[in-house]
Design goal:
With about 160 residues, the protein is mainly alpha-helical. Helix content is about 75%, strand content about 0%. It is elongated and about 60 Å long.
Length: about 160
């Protein structure tokens, strides 16, 4: 048996800024990934004649490119949340839910999101998606680290 349904959390400027603050940590993850990617590419150029550890370096470089895409998306989400929080603070009538609808409309107008056919996504759903992207970014850096260590172990 499950307990009572959780009470929905009201999202305001503070909660949006907290989400944005967590997402901005992706910048540090991206910096680590870029360093690992650079090491992998340097290793590929240095080891042109050694074939034993090249697949691990290619994996590191490929994971770095995918991570870079995730980093751009995470940073974009963080900046959108910061802008939305500033909008809510500046306009006392604006709430996070109204801001979400405006955000969705702006993204659809820019071609970055499909126009909503049904009800707008809830903030917990949006948060899960953004946090999942940040976790994917971190997972790719862990994969890069393991591949670099494998390359160094077989060198």
């Amino acid at each position: 048996m499950s307990g009572p349904a959780p009470t929905p959390v009201a999202f305001g400027a503070f909660e949006l800024r907290a989400m944005a603050a967590l997402l901005t940590q992706g910048r540090s993850v991206c910096a680590a990934s870029l360093l690992l990617t650079a090491l992998a590419l340097l290793g590929l150029f240095e080891a042109a004649g050694i074939s034993g550890w090249r697949p691990a370096l290619w994996l590191t470089a490929a994971a770095g490119l995918v991570q870079l895409y995730c980093a751009v998306r995470v940073d974009f989400d963080a900046r959108l949340l910061q802008a939305l929080a500033a909008h809510i603070e500046a306009d006392a009538q604006a709430g996070a839910d109204g801001g979400a609808a405006r955000l969705d409309a702006a993204l659809a107008a820019l071609g970055l999101r499909k126009p909503a056919a049904g009800p707008a996504r809830s903030w917990p759903s949006r948060w899960r998606g953004a946090r999942g992207l940040l976790l994917k970014q971190a997972g790719l850096v862990i994969l890069q680290s393991a591949a670099i260590l494998a390359a160094l172990g077989s060198a």
